[in-house]
Amino acid sequence: MKALLPDGTELQLDDGATGADAAAAIGAGLARAALAVKVDGQLRDLTAPLHDGATLEILTQKSGEEALELLRHDTAHVLAAAVIDLYPGVKISIGPPIQDGFYYDFEFPPGVTVSDADFARIEAKMKEHIKADEQFAREDVSVGTALERFVREQQPYKVELIEDLVRNAPADDPVETVSLYTNGPFTDLCRGPHGPGTKRIKAFKLQSIAGAYWRGDARRTMLTRIYGTAFFTKEELAAYLERVEEAKKRDHRKLGRELRLFGFSAVAPGSAFWLPRGTQLWNTLVAFTRELNRPRGYDEVKTPQIYDSELWKTSGHWGKYKENMFLTAAEDRDMAVKPMNCPGHCQLFGMQRHSHRELPVRYSEPGLLHRYEPSGTLHGLMRVRHFAQDDAHIFCTEEQVQDEVIGCLDLIFETLGRFGFDIDIELSTRPENRIGSEEMWDRAEAKLADALRHQGLEYRINEGDGAFYGPKIDFHVTDSLGRSWQLGTVQLDYSMPARFGLTYVGADDREHTPVMIHRAAMGSYERFIGMLIEHYAGEFPVWLSPVQAIVLPISDRHVDYAQEVVAALQAAGVRVDVDERTESVGRKIRDAELQKYPYMLILGDREAEGREVAARRHREGDIGSFALTDFVARVAEETATRSA
RNA sequence: GCCCGAAUAGCUCAGCUGGUAGAGCACCUGUCUUGUAAACAGGGGGUCAGGGGUUCGAGUCCCCUUUCGGGCUCCA
């Protein structure tokens, strides 16, 4: 029989030949390096028989992501083998490869807890299995045989997985057999494929331990998840661990403290205390928001913090989010601190009569919000209990929805584009727990999809993740350690205006219910600042930097001129510090570099005489001398145009 | 909220199997008056997160609480 190779050549093989045979026919080196084979684009074990006319690609460690995934999947099985050796009675569930590594979920016997202190012991046992070069042997068995086996071995999770496989199979293609993979003492229900043997695992490391609910369901057992990673070489593993260490240096919680932007206190968990510099950064972003909103027809408004529970019942939040709101009472009235601005904006809209001629009405408000987030979900600035959004609500007619959504997408891109983030877009559709009719959801989801297509944007559908009142488009960005966070959002809402009885008077002189669009570009300022810190590693562009320059007089006799320079910069709106300590210039520069000031201005006799500044750029070093007026103009220009 | 772990000076950390706290940086004072990434000397600063227990004796062992870290669930 024949097989076709990636370079277009044909390979002659005996009937019944396997991927391993094909690799051997090409060359002994490839045979040794082979991990798996891609047959007609499908990854298979090397031992799987080929068919005539198959297109083949031999997977080796040079094959990139797919090869790494295979290796990590192999390593997950070795981890399970080691854990079964060390913890008799352990129950196994699943162990897939993931981004950057793998995990395996276990239920340890009652009373047994495993922590990262046990990693050394588990890793040692894994090494024994790797050294033994145990082969991954695949076996296709009937559902009955597999069930019997896992029942006998008291592995209820595997039994449940098989039962679900059978149950969820389409009627015209029922599941009759399942595949098992055995490496050493361990046999797992597994789709495969796997590499030839455990010895291919040249470098691995267990990384962390975590609880994880069985099947991701908080009502079910919490399993113990062990995370690890694996590479084909020790050098790659070392390089990866080094990258992780480097990424940790960008952590916004660390930089926030070092750069004196914000802090946290146990007296207000999940709520940042903003130091002067952090507050400045915050205000710069709010000013940026206002500047973008103004020409787009937004009007800034202010609404109260605390409302009667009746308002939350009307909006629907009381039913769905009461547990996550800060509740209070005043004169026996149940009140709640606002977790979002929309009901307040509905109240505001309803305070006046509106003609269709006024629409769209666009209210923006950087309002302070409080959400009683579960303690375990808090995370630096990324997930907090007290925050503000660059929030706005648009009330418009059905006909205006398309243009308004497009306008929102445009605004979000202009906002996020300024910072150069890599953005992932998601369209989140109707959730299980929702209000409104199916027709409403059909229409709303279609409108958002249309707007995305109109803008030529790539997006992914996130089934069932919409807000309870409508579908949404979300903008996601990843942090320094690869965790994804939602920033901007556009949400279509056909429910809340009706619940609040909002109307406008149409051209037909009748009352109509407006459509409401909720949108934010940065999301919350807190999270956005957290992302910015990690994105820039604390080295903000000039326009954004809390303090843009620091003046460094060389000796005490230069302090007067330094004050003059400070005054000139401040008069032009430049944010500037001065270091008047009687320290060496080297010392002042070092400290200023560590604080990541974009500009350092060194002032000595030469500068004082010539009305100049000797400028130094963060990271770059000396950039030469400027006439004081020229330098002031430069920074003012960079700030005004946000060009540096 | 759930699982695992952690909490020692402002920060980063040391403190062996229990014998009542230490370093570097930062801070303060003095000397030095400095030309592009760390001058020198001295000094102050800790109810070892909080509470309870075991013990002759607890930073160290046990329990509870709080907060934080890594995940899971959740995220209007």
Summary keywords:
alpha+beta, five-stranded mixed sheet, nine-stranded mixed sheet, 644 residues, Threonyl-tRNA Synthetase, Chain A, domain 2, BirA Bifunctional Protein, domain 2, Ubiquitin-like (UB roll), 4 domains, globular, RNA-binding
Can you describe what's shown?
It contains 20 helices and 34 strands. Helix 3 crosses helix 4, helix 5 packs antiparallel against helix 6 and helix 8 packs across helix 16. It is globular, with a radius of gyration of 31 Å. Helices cover 35% and strands 27% of the residues. It starts with a strand and ends with a helix. By secondary structure, the protein is an alpha+beta fold. Strands 16, 20, 21, 22, 23, 24, 25, 26 and 29 form a 9-stranded mixed sheet that branches. The protein has a 5-stranded mixed sheet with strand order 2-1-5-3-4. The protein folds into 4 domains: 59 residues, Beta-grasp domain (Ubiquitin-like (UB roll)), CATH 3.10.20.30; 183 residues, Threonyl-tRNA Synthetase, Chain A, domain 2 (2-Layer Sandwich), CATH 3.30.980.10; 211 residues, BirA Bifunctional Protein, domain 2 (2-Layer Sandwich); 93 residues, Rossmann fold, CATH 3.40.50. The structure holds one RNA strand of 76 nucleotides.
Instruction: Quote the average pLDDT.
Output: 96
Number of self-contained structural domains: 4
Shape assignment? globular
Q: Measure the end-to-end span.
A: 64 Å
Strand content: 25-35%
For the secondary structure, the number of strands is: 34
Helix amount:
25-40%
Helical stretch count? 20
Summarize the main sheet. 9 strands, mixed
In terms of structural class, how would the helical and strand content be classed?
Answer: alpha+beta
CATH class descriptor of the largest domain: Alpha Beta
CATH superfamily descriptor of the largest domain: Bira Bifunctional Protein, Domain 2
- Which value, in Å, is the CA radius of gyration? 31 Å
Question: Any idea of the CATH topology of the largest domain?
Answer: BirA Bifunctional Protein, domain 2
User: Which architecture of the largest domain does the CATH hierarchy give at level 2?
Assistant: 2-Layer Sandwich
Spans where pLDDT lies below 50 across 5 or more residues: none
